[in-house]
Amino acid sequence: MQATVESNIVEVNNLRAYYITKAYGVARTVQAVDGISLAIKRGEVYGIAGESGCGKSTLMRVMLAAHQPPLTVVEGSVTYRFDDEEISALSLTPEELREIRWKQVSYVPQGSMHVLNPVRRIRDTFHDFISAHQFVSKQEALEMTRAYLAELGLPEKVLAAYPHQLSGGMRQRVTIALATILWPKLTFADEPTTALDVLVQRGVIQLLKEIQQEKKNTLVVVTHDMGVHANLADRIAVLYAGKLIEEADTRTIFKRPQHPYTQYLIQSLPKIEDKTERVSIPGRPPALDNPPSGCRFHPRCPYAMPICKKEAPPLIESERGHRVACFLVSEEQENVPERYREFAAG
């Protein structure tokens, strides 16, 4: 167990993060992240998947220690392990966070314009990032940036441009370069290919993969796009309504998913030369200010059993490295509906 712990770079333990608001005398609590525990290994690409509103971006925000009210951590911990140093992320002061941000823990935001200053040239933005953590002159920062862009295969001419003069794909590549130029040990990417066309998406995915493989750092990718996960991730965690419902290596998730929600996600993907009708997930996600009792997926699950409506299924290891929270997996085989076994097999 000790060897396993030492191989982890991030550990999340029983994390509960809620949006707590009170307006006009009405209190509201949205259980966006509810009891999630996971461990991310050094040097891996870890994917966090799920449909919009499942809590994946909220989870990432808390793992970055970048949450602010009304988002409140009500329970749990996030621990970074850098070399021989163990850091409680949720206990860091703003000054301590600034010290590790971009240098050890970095972030590729969903929209490139969120991080690129629209009134400064790209070279000046790189200088700002580098000089915040290293004592370098403007010329030294420029040379460092030129060398890194050349290493990534990006044209030097982008340095003289303003963000609005670049295409969406090039802006996203520049943002990735900006987030990784200080060689952070841990990088989070939030929907890195959103709003990009398919060819540009491929280039962005390839850039992320090349940086991760060359620097041997850890990359956490948050996206609803299962195609991105298939191309990038070593392991995938599937979230639903604020809960971690399945986690396994990428091949297992795509070939042998066990939770009905994951099965629907995989089977809804288009396949080459397959013209059969894709099966969508019935119903809609629950409101997290009043989630259903028991398993949160049971109102949409065609295989729900009586126990699913009363009790929340524990997250169990069904096989080595494969965790799933579903009574269809943990219950005795004779209690499981035959149609679920047929669906899972086909």
UniProtKB/TrEMBL annotation:
<feature type="domain" description="ABC transporter">
    <location>
        <begin position="15"/>
        <end position="266"/>
    </location>
</feature>
<dbReference type="InterPro" id="IPR027417">
    <property type="entry name" value="P-loop_NTPase"/>
</dbReference>
<protein>
    <submittedName>
        <fullName>ABC transporter ATP-binding protein</fullName>
    </submittedName>
</protein>
<dbReference type="GO" id="GO:0016887">
    <property type="term" value="F:ATP hydrolysis activity"/>
</dbReference>
<dbReference type="InterPro" id="IPR013563">
    <property type="entry name" value="Oligopep_ABC_C"/>
</dbReference>
<comment type="similarity">
    <text>Belongs to the ABC transporter superfamily.</text>
</comment>
<keyword id="KW-0067">ATP-binding</keyword>
<keyword id="KW-0813">Transport</keyword>
<dbReference type="GO" id="GO:0005524">
    <property type="term" value="F:ATP binding"/>
</dbReference>
<dbReference type="InterPro" id="IPR017871">
    <property type="entry name" value="ABC_transporter-like_CS"/>
</dbReference>
<keyword id="KW-0547">Nucleotide-binding</keyword>
<dbReference type="GO" id="GO:0015833">
    <property type="term" value="P:peptide transport"/>
</dbReference>
<dbReference type="Pfam" id="PF00005">
    <property type="entry name" value="ABC_tran"/>
</dbReference>
<dbReference type="InterPro" id="IPR003593">
    <property type="entry name" value="AAA+_ATPase"/>
</dbReference>
<dbReference type="InterPro" id="IPR003439">
    <property type="entry name" value="ABC_transporter-like_ATP-bd"/>
</dbReference>
<dbReference type="Pfam" id="PF08352">
    <property type="entry name" value="oligo_HPY"/>
</dbReference>
